[in-house]
Amino acid sequence: MLYYNFHAVYMANKTTKLILFSFIIFNVIVYGQNQVDHKLDPVIKSLIIPGWGQKSLEKPKRARFFNYLESGILLTLIGSSTFANIEKKNYKAFASKHAAISSSGKNHKYWVDIGNYNSIENYNEEHLRNREMDDLYSDDKKWSWDWDQESNRKIFENKRIRADQLELFGTFSVGALVLNHIVSSIDALYLKRISTNKSLTINPHNNLILGSVGYSLTLSF
To answer: Where are the domains of the chain?
Structure first.
């Protein structure tokens, strides 16, 4: 148990350093943009780094919004992914100690199964009754497990579920990261078109047959 705690603290420290390093690199890129070719289209800039195009179009508030959002998503992604890996290592070590298993060469299904059954015998017996022959494990040392206490199995299952939730959250963060790039580029396109507006034309019109009078506004880009 002492090894478990030390390992978690060690990995947490590594995570903090990684997050800080990534945050510094990201901000160096964002605020060092003046060194990059100014001919690059603002839409492309924002697609690469959210907020970059807005900054080049002299919209600092909008640029900061996308910058901060990107930083927050990156931190969330790095944090959730790293702590998911920590939790995985922890629950595998816990299972090795309390269920007498060999943790190498196991897929995710195996870890789900050992959290739901006290032993390989219990698992195989139930699947034999249900005629699920393809799901049986070989009753050998590689696949065998036998929990010393049911309470430890439940503790393990909670750890495994928590790791899966963190991993899933990391997956959602990747989606949010991609979406932020797309939205920032669309916003840069909008700002670009507004900034290059050449004229506003007002055209009166009337229809004697219908008896209507009105105006049409035309924005030329």
So the answer is: 2-99+149-220, 105-146
